[in-house]
Amino acid sequence: MNPGGDALPRGQADQQVGPTGVRGENTIVGPLQDTEMRLHCSSLDFPLVAPRFNRNRSAMTREKVTPDEIRAMKRRGEKIASLTVYDYPITKLVDETGVPLLLVGDSLGMVVLGYPDTTHVTMAEMEHHVRAAARARPRSLLAADLPFRSYETPADAVAHARRLVAAGAEAVKAEGGRSILGPVRAVIDAGIPFIGHLGMLPQHVLEEGGYHIKGKTDAEREALLADARALAEAGAFAIVLELVTPPVAKVITASVPVPTIGIGSGPDCDGQILVTPDLVGTFPWFTPRFVKPRLNAAEQMREAIAAWQASL
Ligand code: KIV
Q1: Which of 209, 275, 221, 212 minimizes the C-alpha distance to 247?
Q2: pTM score, two decimals?
């Protein structure tokens, strides 16, 4: 997710990412339906602007996306869009756009929790954010990352994957190929859909001393191919390729029957995933080089806040 090693890691940005604010006791918390919302609001002492639910009917009526559907998209030659989500409103919003695959990524650590890298993210933090995202009840498939050191043995991997599923995840992702095949097979045997993650592995950033592009040498290319084939044979329904050289990502994509979802790995993967704050500009202190932000939300927020403050 981060480009070359010279880039400023997200968490070392000069801003502290803090909680969004204290909520008053009348604040509505949770995914209330329209009717519940109206009833609840009528008992309040101050007017609330009712959220405009149901703005996108097609998103609400579209069929639930399954792992099989993600695989079928590759067979049909349809590009697979995927974005990270970490909370209720953004999950609801991204789901309404029809993006089929959502990931509660452990990038959570940097773009939401203010850690320097993903190795600090705990299982409890992942569960907390998966629960929040799942409350949006997305039609999109909701996957979640197994955090650092949570899948070192098959038994550990299954226990932690089950916890993420209990929190609302419909699939889990873990980093590595043949080196984690035991845990991967155990998760899949337990009936939990699994997404692989190859190339630059952010949970290995400390031992690798930075975020390095993978696939530059013949040895790396062969290892990546063997890892991708092993994950597909084990039953992974998709494989994320992060910072893999574009020619190698293209070869892997043509060599495995399951979709590859690229990030910083060129245009020839079956799909693309981005860290949503990178796309919409809500984490402006660091943007990976391969991302073209489509919105500068941070600047718009600064302007809106300044205008409101000036209007007081
Ligand atoms: O944690 C994350 O957001 C990810 C994606 C970048 C693939 O793993």
Answers
A1: 221
A2: 0.84
